[in-house]
Specification:
The complex is a heterodimer of chains A (about 230) and B (about 375). With about 230 residues, chain A is α/β, with parallel strands linked by helices. In chain A, about 30% of the residues lie in helices and about 30% in strands. In chain A, the strands form 2 sheets. In chain A, strands 6-7-8-3-9-10 form a 6-stranded mixed sheet. The longest helix of chain A is centred in the C-terminal third of the chain and has 16 residues. Chain A is globular, with a radius of gyration of 17 Å. In chain B, strands 4, 5, 6, 7, 8, 9, 10 and 11 form an 8-stranded mixed sheet that branches. A 4-stranded antiparallel sheet of chain B has the order 3-13-1-14, with helices on both faces. Chain B has a two-stranded antiparallel ribbon with strand order 2-12. Chain B starts with a helix and ends with a helix. Classes of the chains: A alpha/beta (about 230), B alpha+beta (about 375). The interface between A and B is medium-sized, with 27 and 25 residues.
Chain lengths: ~230, ~375
């Protein structure tokens, strides 16, 4: 199976005042194309840091991170920005929609970074909204939607530019069980039917069951476990 | 342009705060337009002055009259081509608030001295032939709806008549105009002979002389020669170029340019504090949103541009509204003060300067919040939520 993302001997160390905190320690990980990987582990174990490294939001203190053939650890900030805009879709726990924009405009945001015209951007945003089942909410603002609907819009925003990998940080952490299940099913569909590679950080064991495999992160190291 | 909708939405995220900021910008640019227009009026007087005309006034004060006998001596001064005189009348039409400048002059001499004044020859002839005739500027005629042939009574505030009356009657014989829009025509001219004959006091005097120097003559030398003739006399003179005369007259009101600069400086400094604070607050409130934008792939530079554009947009909204309202007010001020302060005008240069100022002020007000947005660490900002 093709490896989409590869972490080799990756460490991440933060300096907090005089204290040196090693969040990830010499970690190796291969993520095959089309994988739906759940990362679990206690708070502070390094899950989100691992996600940030995969998304090019952070750089390792040591080791290399390669996603889709691009070696992220050697890229400049502007190169990483450009790479993120075409290769990664992010989904956050608290949705992080922009409150001043409608659902459609929120979904359209990543497309502002492309050369697409206004009509084409709107068309693609509407397609993404239809995939998440929110075509009828295109003109609604985040404050006019439920948490589940907001997260669906966030998913539409994440997939609108057809990224290589979707990175989800506790995507159901702010939702009730039923809504969380709907969101997870949606992610499963994106993985199985649209071939999206997904890495999901979660505390929720039930959420992790939707993934094709689960890895536990503890004290900066990985421990495999079948889903 | 594709970011405009996004920038517009962000600018209005706190409607009350943005409205108040826009209002403060509006007031600043309203003041800018009014002060600029008034400053322009003071400056345009000297800009329009003829370099070959000199003005002779009493050395002690402009309000002291000069003997009429000086005219021949001035005319005989080497380098003087022609000379005429004018005086201040100071009357009003019907109501005391209807004041306008009125000058007793020698009609033909005066129009020769001021070729920029345009009046049909037949009107000039009719006026010069009618002892109680008067000529008024186009603006003044329009202001009171006067037309040729009207008899206009004026109430004198200084010059009572020999019969003890204060009412002076005139026949409107001519209406003059000027090609330059900055040259006001809100004043009235009438015969010095009529004035001299009918006034109860002050006979044999004029307010000031205006002379035209001969081609090639040195204005400073001519001015010195004129003043030298009347040195140590009861009425010593001070001769200056028309431009210097107009400037010194303006300075009686103070250094207008400096006053305008100081007021605008204070207003714009305050404006920068207000709008800078608005932008800083606005950016502080949406740190996590800016981090999300970076996550989506917006570059550091594009965030810098977005925040700066938002700041400039707010400045342009308030500024253009302020300039627009200012322009309307300037039209009103121009009509109200036109007689005494012609040339109140918002020049194209002032408008362009205002737009440049809006952009510069927007950039200055937004630069620090924009840099903060640009330097934002995504991981830290998202962790803070």
């Amino acid at each position: 199976m093709d490896v989409l993302a590869k972490l080799e001997n990756v460490s991440r160390v933060y300096q907090k005042g005089k204290e040196r905190v090693e969040v990830l320690h010499e970690l190796d990980l291969d993520i095959p194309k089309g994988d739906f990987l759940a990362l679990m582990g206690p708070s502070g174990s390094g899950k989100t840091t691992l996600l940030n490294l995969l998304g090019g939001l952070d750089k390792p203190s040591a080791g290399t991170v390669t996603v889709g053939g691009a070696e992220l650890s050697s890229m400049s900030n502007s190169q990483l920005s450009k790479w993120r805009s075409t290769h990664v879709g992010f989904i956050f726990q608290f949705y992080n929609l922009l409150p001043v924009l409608t659902a459609r405009k929120n979904v359209e945001l990543p497309l502002l970074l492309t050369n697409l015209g206004s009509g084409e951007r709107t068309k693609r945003a509407d397609i993404a909204l239809s995939i998440v089942g929110l075509s009828d909410r295109a003109k609604h603002y985040p404050r006019e939607m439920s948490g589940g609907q907001e997260q669906r819009v966030a998913i539409a925003r994440a997939v609108v530019s057809d990224p290589t990998i979707l990175l989800c940080d506790e995507p159901t952490g702010d939702l009730d069980r039923a809504t969380a299940d709907e969101i997870l099913k949606l992610l499963q569909i994106l993985n199985r039917e649209h071939g999206k590679t997904i890495v999901m950080v979660t505390h929720d064991a039930q959420a992790a069951e939707y993934a094709s495999r689960v890895l536990h992160v503890d004290k900066g190291k990985l421990e495999a476990k079948a889903a | 342009m594709k970011y405009f909708g996004f920038i517009w939405k962000n600018a209005w995220r706190k409607k009350v705060r943005t409205t108040l900021t826009i209002l403060s910008v509006l007031v600043a640019f309203l003041l800018y337009s009014l002060l600029n227009a008034i400053g322009y009026a003071f400056k345009s007087g000297s800009d329009l002055a003829d370099a070959e005309r000199l003005v002779v006034i009493d050395k002690i004060s402009l309000i002291n009259p000069l003997p009429v006998s000086y005219e021949n001596k001035i005319a005989a001064t080497p380098g003087v081509e022609s000379v005429t005189h004018a005086s201040w009348f100071g009357g009003y039409y019907q109501e005391p608030q209807n004041q306008m400048p009125q000058f007793p002059v020698e009609p033909l001499e005066y129009f020769e001295m001021y070729p920029e004044l345009k009046m049909p020859p037949e009107q000039l002839e009719a006026w010069s032939n009618n002892r109680i005739g008067m000529a008024v500027g186009q603006e003044l005629a329009a202001q009171f709806g006067w037309k040729i042939g009207d008899r206009i009574p004026l109430q004198a505030t200084i010059w009572t008549r020999k019969d003890g009356g204060r009412t002076w009657e005139f026949d409107l014989e001519g209406i003059f105009s000027t090609d330059d829009p900055r040259g006001g025509t809100g004043y009235m001219l009438f015969h010095y002979d009529y004035f001299e004959e009918a006034r109860a006091f002050g006979e044999g005097t004029v307010g000031w002389y205006i002379l035209r120097i001969a081609s090639g003559a040195n204005p400073v030398e001519v001015a010195n020669a004129v003043d030298a003739q009347f040195a140590n006399s009861p009425n010593e003179t001070e001769t200056s170029t028309e431009q210097a005369f107009v400037e010194s007259f303006s300075k009686q009101f103070g250094n207008i340019a400096l006053i305008v600069t100081l007021i605008l400086g204070a207003v714009f400094f305050t404006l920068l504090l207000v709008s800078g604070n608005t932008m800083a607050q606005s950016v502080r409130e949406r740190i996590s949103e800016l981090a999300v934008l970076k996550t989506l792939g917006f570059s550091d530079r594009s965030l810098l541009g977005i925040v700066l554009s938002e700041s400039v947009l707010i400045m342009l909204l308030g500024g253009l509204l302020g300039i627009g309202i200012g322009w309307l007010l300037v039209q009103g001020v121009s009509q109200a003060l036109g007689a005494f302060l012609p040339g109140v005008f918002l020049s194209p240069q002032a408008l362009l300067g205002a737009i440049a100022l809006m952009v510069v002020a927007g950039v200055i007000a937004g630069i620090f919040p924009a840099l903060k947005a640009m330097r934002l660490s995504i991981v830290d900002a998202l962790a803070r939520g």
